[in-house]
Amino acid sequence: MKTRIWALLGLLVVIGSCSETQVVGAGDDLLPSDVLTVPDGAKEGLWQEPQPDAGGCKPDCEAKQCGSDGCGGTCGVCPGGIDCEEGLCTGTCKDECGPAGSTACAANGIQECGQFDGDGCLEWSDVRPCPGFGHCEGGECICVPDCAGRECGYDGCSGSCGTCKEGTQCVDYQCKGGCVDECPEAGDAHCTETGRVECGDHDDDGCLEWSEEQNCAGPCVDGECQCEPDCGGKDCGPDGCGAQCGTCPPGQACKESKCTSGTTECMPGGIDEQNCGLCGKKNRKCAADGTWGEWTPCLDEGVCLSGAEEKKSCGKCGNQTRNCLFDCQWGNWSYCVGEGLCAPGETQYENCGLCGQQSRGCDGQCNWGSWTGCVGEGTCTPGDDQTEACGNCGTRTRNCNNDCNWTPWSSCQNQGQCSPGSTGTCGACGFQTCSPACQWGQCQGQGECVPGSISTDGCPTCRGRTCNNQCNWAAACAVCSGCTQFNKCGTSCPSGYHATGYSCNFSCGSSCWSDNQATCAPSCGNQFNKCGTSCPSGYHATGYSCNFSCGSSCWSDNQATCQIDN
């Protein structure tokens, strides 16, 4: 049988690639261990020429059943216990443990070495947990009693943590004083499997408990035995209470309660057993009169008809099979075979174009459909950049990000002074033109002065003239310029200044009985007040008034208001 399997698998391996499937020859009664894992390319004839991987390595599984494909993958895996030698499964198995019957600890339980899968080699059994509070040490289950904080009761290892003295009882692992009634009322009785028990104080501890079991010769009903045996004049046969009055010697049968030596169907007490149903058994017993009793129902049946096969779907449109074994129990499911490339409804995505994506779906036969068009693309290739002119002979840049989209433009860098061809004012009412290089040309057509500037040229002391908006000097010296107010000793002011008040200052003389200091202000502006009743040249008086700052007393006008002449 295995020779046919290896021949079939050899053909499939030659056209294999990388993933796994399983092949079972028609008509072969394979155990799970006979199923060989083979490369994915052998599935349902869906073979493709092996393609180099991302590193440029091309898998080589030609004439191989197992082992490396030369690119970090595998050409197949042999069944459990079968060795792979030079790319071929040897057909022999290797013991995984030894000797048979030895044990080992695993997962807080114990394993036994033996032959469990029918391949003739030794392997470990499933892990069997240690019972109770036990654990495994050196291949044996060791139980450590747990009596911490306990006075009595179960110790976890089929022993006791102690017994309570007379008059106490064990409650929640502690000995409690006094006793407790174990049954409701003295005289109460109930039936057991073969007799009856009665409630009463049978151990003289002052509490009620059930008596020891009293056997009934017949049935027990409501706590009472219901039958008295009747064996009067009987050698054998029933006593009327479910028991026998006696048994006949070998070769004799019981007929009408008497032992006879006539021909019988069977030896009284003998049992006849036959197969039935799904690997079940039925039996019948020879009665005391030498006749067979009724057959029992069919017992211990299996779940399937030996030799039957069952299939179910699996994986990606594949299928699994299992066979009903000789004991009418289902064997293990085979590996999933005949799978497609994908699961129905599954969708696969792939990058395309400028950060776009295309997709394809898996159809009901577990094959991939066609790729869709590329959608969701960006506008540029990641890493690209762009530069363009901006502003006054400046430049700005932008970059393509990892999403294939341009980043915002940067601010305009390295700009010039102006926009080419534009004009602007300059200097004293002049003008200038912007060059193609965004730089201003020379200032042309300037006037005499800069508007708002002041000059004292040709003007009296403390006066000046202003440059008008046409960049020409005003004719009149009408503004104050170059002079500030100050105090001086004496009562007169220098040319260009006028007195605005007099005061006494000891710094201006050894004594101060009268005014000896003048406050002098520039004689400029459109109008000003001065001590005295006369005005300087270019101004005329518009009024007189009395100001105590201009004298120690003020009996008459001593201050003039001077207005510039127009």
Radius of gyration, in angstroms, nearest whole number: 63 Å
What's the shape?
elongated
Q: Proportion of β residues?
A: 25-35%
State the share of residues found in helices, binned by percent.
under 10%
- The tally of helices reads 1
Q: Mean pLDDT, as a whole number?
A: 79
* Head-to-tail CA distance between termini: 139 Å
Q: Can you summarize the main beta sheet?
A: 4 strands, antiparallel
Low-confidence stretches: 1-49
The secondary-structure class comes to mainly beta
Could you give the count of β-strands? 39
How is this structure best described in words?
With 566 residues, this protein is mainly β. Among the domains are: 2-127, no CATH class; 444-482, no CATH class; 484-564, no CATH class. Helix content is 2%, strand content 29%. It has 1 helix and 39 strands. The protein has one helix at residues 2-14, and strands at residues 20-22, 37-39, 82-85, 88-93, 103-106, 109-114, 123-124, 128-129, 135-137, 140-142, 168-171, 174-177, 189-191, 195-200, 209-210, 214-215, 220-221, 224-225, 253-255, 258-260, 271-276, 280-285, 309-314, 318-323, 347-352, 356-361, 385-390, 394-399, 423-426, 430-433, 454-455, 463-466, 479-480, 486-489, 497-503, 517-522, 527-531, 539-545, 559-564. Strands 5, 6, 7 and 8 form a 4-stranded antiparallel sheet that branches. A hairpin with a 2-residue loop joins strand 17 (220-221) and strand 18 (224-225).
Task: Please outline what is shown here.
The protein is mostly beta strands and 566 residues long.
